[in-house]
Design goal:
This protein is mostly helical and 194 residues long. It contains nine helices and no strands. The longest helix is centred in the first third of the chain and has 24 residues.
């Protein structure tokens, strides 16, 4: 057990993230976290406001970790090579850090994340990769949504054992990323409202 004097918001957040990976993000409670530190629930409130505050902190921590991993993977790459690296790093994080990954999917008040370095870095890296396909707004936003929906849907189904066909899951993933590359290269032009 860690002594009470060692509690800080950062230590609690890291411990909650570890707990999420062990028991699932939805199962993380202040009581479970307090038990891990050998303290009463009430002693956590001087470091985090409530469970929602703790969950937001875990989401921000996980989002930063995930984009750091993606940034390393895509560094020096462009086009399909960058997309494959981005997708692979995304999926690996979801597989290796399931509780943290689940935290990245919660809705967070935009005012809480507007100035965070992780959000800026996520936007910079994701949009930078997509600009190599010649995309500009509003297509960038649409493409980000397509990638996120595809990657998250695949990872969620995979983690739940939702792929029962005998085809190798990695091969299906590779083909899905190939299909996304083709879609990005042939992005449909939006019709004018004139």
């Amino acid at each position: 057990m860690v002594p009470r004097a060692g509690l800080t918001p950062d230590r609690l957040t890291e411990a909650a993230a570890d707990l999420a990976d062990e028991i699932g993000f939805d199962n993380v409670t202040l009581a479970a976290l307090a038990k891990r530190f050998g303290v009463k629930d009430a002693s956590l409130y001087s470091h985090v406001r409530n469970l929602q505050d703790l969950r937001t902190r875990v989401a921000l921590l996980a989002g930063g970790e995930m984009i750091d991993r993606i940034a390393v993977a895509v560094a020096g790459r462009a086009g399909k090579d960058a997309l494959v690296a981005f997708a692979g790093a995304y999926r690996a994080y979801a597989q290796e850090r399931p509780g943290r990954y689940a935290a990245t999917q919660i809705r967070i008040d935009q005012s809480l994340i507007a100035g965070t370095p992780a959000l800026h870095r996520t936007t910079e890296i994701t949009y930078g990769m997509l600009r190599a396909y010649g995309l500009a707004e509003p297509d960038l936003t649409d493409a980000v949504r397509l990638l996120r929906a595809t990657f998250h849907g695949y990872c969620a189904l995979e983690s739940a054992g939702g792929f029962g066909a005998p085809r190798d899951v990695q091969k299906s993933w590779d083909r899905a990323v190939d299909a996304l590359h083709v879609a990005l290269e042939n992005w449909p032009q939006e019709e004018s409202d004139d």
